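Protocol check, entry for the methods section draft. Step 1: assemble the input record (protein sequence plus ligand SMILES). Step 2: submit for complex structure prediction. Step 3: store the structure tokens unaltered in the notebook. Ligand used here: fe (ii) ion. Step 1 record:
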Amino acid sequence: MVVDLFLYFTVYSFMGWIMETAFASITQKKFINRGFLIGPFTPIYGFGAIMIIQSSTWIGNMFGNYYISLLMCIVISTLLVTALEFITGYALEKVFNAKWWDYSNNMMNLKGYICLSYSLLWGLLAFLLIQVVHPLITQFIYLIPVSAKRYITALLAVYFLVDTYKSVISTLNLRKAIINHANLSESKYKDIIIKYKRIFLAFPRLLISIESVLSREVRSILNGGINRIKVKIRTDFKFEEEYKDCINDLISHEITRSMKNYKHHGDVNCLEHSLYVSYISYKICKKLGMDYRSAARGGLLHDFYLYDWHIEKPYKGLHGFVHPDIALQNADKFFSLNSIEKDIIKKHMWPLTVKPPRYKESFVVLMIDKYCAFMEIIKFGRRKKVKRLKEIFDI
Ligand SMILES: [Fe+2]
Ligand SMILES: [Fe+2]
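Step 3, stored output:
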């Protein structure tokens, strides 16, 4: 009998966990392991179900009429489960100084622990349990051999003990950390909050209830994803500002802007291509600790040959071979360049230009040039970034 009750407890704790997790996951639009325990069990449902099953057996024997006994079963089950919910809510608040759920805004509630609508829902679930679910589960459990049941129960008992112990310790540690957060170092506090993130996600009420002791920082740690995005936006903005500073004098010149009149690859014009090459080269050189300023400037002017190679041929020789020299001549005419910038422009078609680049920045730009040309030809991946760069420079 005890073995059967324990198995019922496990099954209904699991069903309760599925209901709670499904509800929380749907409302929060992401998977939420809604439960105090680490495993997929919500014991309050197991206890509630056992109370309903036991009380319905006693009441069934007290009344001769089937309907009266069913009605009495449901009324008493509803009252018992509501009492269980009140006691659990009260006890959790006493232990953790925070409400784990709060019905304060619901009609006819008692201190936020219980309310009429949820009690009616428990009544409906009790009815379904007595009439539909429990008869099926009983048949299923009946099929398991007695020795197997004992073995399973022993294993489950050990599992529940370990999980409960670990979960209680985790939650108490979390509570201690929140209450004493002023005495903890910032990094230790963050570590603890991240470690017990699951508990906050499972019971968002905790965040609201303990607002007074919970610094804003905890929210930001828990919203790590959002923060990372914010940091990325800030970093991108910083990059853009610095990049702007590197090429501002070049890009604001009319002659550089005139590159947009020349078709380059497919529907991409020469200015779009050069900006793309310049910005990526700048970012990579910055990351690698190279001369990113020269990379950005050389990258922007690497195709500064100023004609449409698809229709015009103002110079002798094949475009692929001669345009780096023409670009360098033009660039020299309009701007004052350093030796790295000159090398970048002159060698960007290497190995077509036999002499290899002299500077590592030139290698970066020539590789990025190939990469960007490939992306432009297959029409992939550049749209957003180039669009943003064109906005920045009002092109
Ligand atoms: Fe080129
Ligand atoms: Fe190019």
